[in-house]
Amino acid sequence: MFILGHVGLTCGAVHAIDREADLRFVPIFALLPDLLDKPLDLLLPGFTNGWTRTIGHSLSASAVFSLVVFLWKRKKSWPWILAYGLHLALDRMWMRDTHTLFWPFQGFSFDVPWTDEQTLRHLLDPWVGGGEIAGLLVLVALFVRGRLWNARAKRAFLATGVLAKPSGRGPDLVS
After folding, report:
1. Could you report the per-residue pLDDT of 74-128, keeping only the tens digit for each?
2. Considering its fold, how many domains does the chain have in total?
3. What is the distance between the alpha carbons of residues 127 and 121, in angstroms, rounded to a whole number?
């Protein structure tokens, strides 16, 4: 899964569960495992062995993140915790690489060979492409639902993170 899939599907899930949830930081936490692991691969290639799904994609990191966010935000932490967890689910971490998922309990190194052929197969995987399209469609739907083309609705969203409630009438095209 790539950026649109992670961000769109996660924001859509959070909004579906609670229409009053603050969506402003959900995209960041939906991408956090990648934001942790991609630089780690650049800074410590010997540790990651060229694999960009490492510590951030583990249940250990998810548990630590969840605990810290819960202690900080309490009841308002669930969208961020869900966003992080959905990243692991959308990456299907249980399928190919359980070593990373259960890190460090199966050892501290990441010995996952990754070839150019696997990269091509990954890019052509319908789950990846379909996830990107679905994520884009969800983001468009949220944009329309929140009437974010409207300056007032956009300001309200940026201030609260909550999408404007549909007014029941046609689209409000003027600000």
Report:
1. 888 999 999 999 999 998 888 766 778 887 887 766 666 556 566 666 666 777 7
2. 1
3. 11
